[in-house]
Write a structure and sequence with these properties.
This protein has 130 residues and is an alpha+beta fold. It has a single domain, classed as Ribosomal Protein S5, domain 2 (2-Layer Sandwich). The protein is 37% helix and 22% strand. The protein contains four helices and five strands; from the N terminus they run E-E-E-E-H-H-E-H-H. The termini are far apart.
Length: 130
């Protein structure tokens, strides 16, 4: 594979535009190293999961533009983007493993809106009979 494959990953309010090309395993996020962008090891682990599952760690270079959301949502959006890109690279080899691990499914859970006349989405103000 000599060309770059791009894919989109989303989670909550986070959007990850991912570009995957054959390389040495370097992951760049918004122009910074992955370990520099995500300080927490668990977030770095989440981002690397598609490579671990497919056994392709160190074979692809990733450039990603992350936007919106929080750090966890961004990490999970990055995971989905990388998984989708790997699927485009070699569908037969990677798709079944990624699908079994659940990395090709967009997590559709979003924050429920706050309703008028109450303090949160479902929380009610304390009821007083008298």
């Amino acid at each position: 594979m000599e060309k770059t494959v791009n894919a989109l990953g989303r989670r909550k309010a986070a959007v990850a535009r991912v570009y995957v090309a054959a390389g040495t395993g370097k992951i760049t996020v918004n122009g910074r190293e992955l370990s520099e962008y995500f300080s927490d090891d668990s977030l770095i682990y989440i981002a690397n999961q598609p490579f671990e599952v497919t056994g392709t760690a160190g074979q692809f270079d990733v450039k990603a533009n992350l936007d919106g959301g929080g750090v966890r949502g961004q990490a999970e959006a990055l995971r989905l983007g990388i998984a989708r890109a790997l699927c485009e690279v070699d569908r037969e080899a990677y798709r079944s493993a990624l699908k079994a691990a659940g990395f090709l499914t967009r997590d559709a859970r979003e924050v429920e809106r706050k309703k008028p006349g109450q303090p949160g989405a479902r929380r009610r103000f304390q009821f007083s009979k008298r």
